[in-house]
UniProtKB/TrEMBL annotation:
InterPro entries (alphabetical): ArsR-like_HTH (IPR011991), HTH_MarR-typ (IPR000835), MarR/SlyA-like (IPR039422), Tscrpt_reg_MarR-type_CS (IPR023187), WH-like_DNA-bd_sf (IPR036388), WH_DNA-bd_sf (IPR036390)
Protein name (database record): MarR family transcriptional regulator
SUPFAM superfamilies documented for this protein: Winged helix' DNA-binding domain
PROSITE patterns cross-referenced by the UniProt entry: HTH_MARR_1 (PS01117), HTH_MARR_2 (PS50995)
Amino acid sequence: MERPELAAAIDVAAEALVGVLDAAVSRQRLVVSPTQLRVLALLSSRPATNVNGLAELLDVVPSSASRLCDRLEAIGLVRRVADPRDRREVRLEPTTAAQALLGEVRSRRHEAVQAVLDRMPPRVQQDLLRALVAFGQAAAVAQQPEAAAHTA
């Protein structure tokens, strides 16, 4: 398979994966929008995030990020907590309910992906696993210079 064909196949597979993941979540009655779910996932993986940091991650203005957090706080999924190192700074933390919601979403997505994998022969699954690990490693190496440029 030539490189352009491989890139196209990966693009098609990525779209299929997104479709499987979206379908797994859309069948669930969520109290949050996809954007709010993304905010919860970001906050869960970055514990010391403040509104400005969240705005940067989402590529939105801080006032938009703040309004998103206001809505999530109103439904009990986010809380604002004073940073113990600097009480003027306010961190955003997902609540226990948000963590439970994220866990349920992850579980449903995992089940949906596993159902697709179960339709593949075991040897192909192993080949896919090796390819995905290699792809992840190559992507991480490619992003290292980018990360260094952002911190400089």
